[in-house]
Amino acid sequence: MSITIFDLQGYKIMSDISVLILSVTILVLVLIIIILSMSIKKQRRKLVSMSRENSSFKTLCDLIKAPIWFKDQDFKMVWVNKFYAQMFDRSKASIYGLTDKELAPAKLAEGYYRDDLMVKESKKPYVYRENEKTGLWFETTKFPLLEENGNCYGLGGIAFNITALKKSESLMHSVVYNDYLTGISNRLSLSVEITKMLTISKENESQLAFICIDLDNFKDINELYGHSVGNEILKKIAQKLKKYASDKGILVGRFGGDEFAVVVPNLKSYDYVTNVCEDIKKHVNSIYDIFDSNVTINISIGVSIYPKDCDNYEDLVRQADMSVHVAKEQGKNRIVFYDEEIGKANFKRIKIEMNIRSALDNEEFVLHYQPKVSVDGKSILGFEALIRWNNSELGFISPCDFIPVAEQSDLIIHISDWVLRKAMIQNLQWNKQYGKMYPIAVNLSAKQIYRMDFLPKVLSVLEELNYPPQYLELEITESMLMSKDDASRASFEKLRSMGAKITMDDFGTGYSNLSYLSNFPLDKLKIDRRFITDIGNNKENQQIVKAIIMLARAFDLSLIAEGVEKIDELQYLQSMGVDVIQGFYFAKPLAPDTVYDFVKSVESGDWAEKVVRD
Ligand code: C2E
Ligand code: MG
Ligand code: MG
């Protein structure tokens, strides 16, 4: 089919092809118009929705309790939220068009300008925390407003008040890094600081001293005076250390319990550390007047040095700790520097800890017996049972080395039970063999006597073995009596009423409060070896022993001198009126099968002759 178009006059004006082209063109135009109109409608709908979103966004921003602002590319305010306007106590409209210069103090405005410029140029958000002088903390986020082509046409910002967060952060820091009781650095904080100091020391090739301070007898003080007194003492000591260290570049902290640490960086000489330790002793050692109690405090100090002794934090602490232990063993209230010998002794201690658990089961313990002899050498008045440990790996180990290890756990209870029983069985056996029984003394441990089952256990062994109580002697030490425990006192009273004897061992080395002499059931005082050594020439020891003799007389107690090694010691004690002697002069602790030989030599008068002859 073909179409021909005529004008009104009937002239044919277009050919078929031209008509076709025109029709297509019209169709295309119509289509374009339709598409355009649809697109315009869509765009309009989007704009409407965008403007709705925009106002929702603004409403949302107004609800937020933090300042929010938008600036143009010249950093003039174009929109702020309600909170922002309230902050400046102005209307929103009055802020628009202003810069920070006109809104904030000059110094702050300068900083804001620099930040804005950076965000605009980097086209990246920037988050920072600021502390206004008011004490308020803000976390501010600034972000660029970017066109699709990447041009920055302005900035937005929001600032959150994080003062509460900051406060809780600093509280957390203080809880984590400060000692809750004394307020000085705690163990964690010390570990962080010392590790940093060690890194600096390595870089500078300088030395650093770690000083570990441990209060002497603090456990006893706590028990005797109560924990609140103990706590007050710890607080006072912390303050003293802090004051001492304040202008010396020295770090102080509490390691835990009754242990404090002092760190001296940039050490020039070992003498300087010695001086610091002496100074600390002078400052801390004193009588503390707390809640009407006068408490005497002394400290033991252990020192390790980087890089002489080790090169890391853990070893530094370990070595100073070992040195403190040595200071305690050597009689407390002293300063000990770490050396290789201490390391070896500690290694032995660890070995003891590893082996001691199985020692009882493997029957590795034995008892030796040291005779107590009359000062003229004529008669044996009893024996003291002294434990020995013979281990296949470690050899013969002294009770001084392993009893303290056993005392750290309940092992001491099992060992003590074994000693008590074994000593009684041995005595009964001698009685069977030689027709003679001697009083046998056993050493007790503090852990043992404060247990509820102490008395029932002793009574049950006595009964089971049918052992006459008058042949049992119990040796205790002064430090065991520091806690006011009426139950343990009653136990000793009961045993004493049955005929057993109670001896105060190592007398003169323990706690100076002697009130127990009048109210604790005691029979004998054993003068400690340290006062006996060379007593003939040592005037001070002579005075001490004289005083002990007077005390014993005043409280109607018998006396034994232990550790008598030489005849002149024996003669001096004889002249002072001490009549029972225990010591190497007569015999070292004897293995059970050699005891009878000694008994015979005394009975035959050999010793009496020797004493006269010497
Ligand atoms: P201790 O009860 O004061 O015992 C006396 C210590 O002095 C013994 O040491 C003894 O061998 C030693 N000794 C005696 N005479 C002399 C002397 O003339 N010169 C010298 N240098 N030393 C002398 P040992 O046997 O090594 O015992 C040491 C400590 O171990 C005892 O001191 C006691 O506290 C404790 N111990 C010993 N056996 C036991 C036990 O079975 N149980 C408990 N809990 N502790 C024990
Ligand atoms: Mg003893
Ligand atoms: Mg003793």
User: Alpha-carbon distance between the termini?
Assistant: 160 Å
Percent helix range: 40-55%
> Rg to the nearest angstrom?
45 Å
Q: How are the strands of the largest sheet arranged?
A: 15-16-18-19-20-21-22-23
Strand count, sense and closure of the main sheet? 8 strands, mixed, barrel
> What value does the average pLDDT take?
90
Strand content: 15-25%
Cofactors and ligands present?
ligand C2E, magnesium ion
Q: Given the helix and strand composition, which structural class is it?
A: alpha/beta
Number of helices: 23
Shape, please? elongated
As residue ranges, the low-confidence spans are 1-13
| Record field, number of beta strands | 23
Quick tags:
binds ligand C2E, disordered N terminus, binds magnesium ion, 8-stranded mixed barrel, elongated, alpha/beta, 614 residues
Short description:
With 614 residues, the chain is α/β, with parallel strands linked by helices. The protein is 50% helix and 23% strand. One magnesium ion binds next to strand 20.
Mind explaining what this structure looks like?
By secondary structure, this protein is an alpha/beta fold. Helices cover 50% and strands 23% of the residues. An eight-stranded mixed β-barrel has the order 15-16-18-19-20-21-22-23, surrounded by four helices. Strands 4-3-7-6-5 form a five-stranded antiparallel beta sheet, sandwiched between helices. Strand 20 (501-507), helix 18 and strand 21 form a beta-alpha-beta unit. The protein is elongated. The model is unreliable at 1-13 (pLDDT under 50). The structure holds ligand C2E and magnesium ion (MG) (2 copies). Ligand C2E binds next to strand 16, helix 13, helix 14 and strand 20.
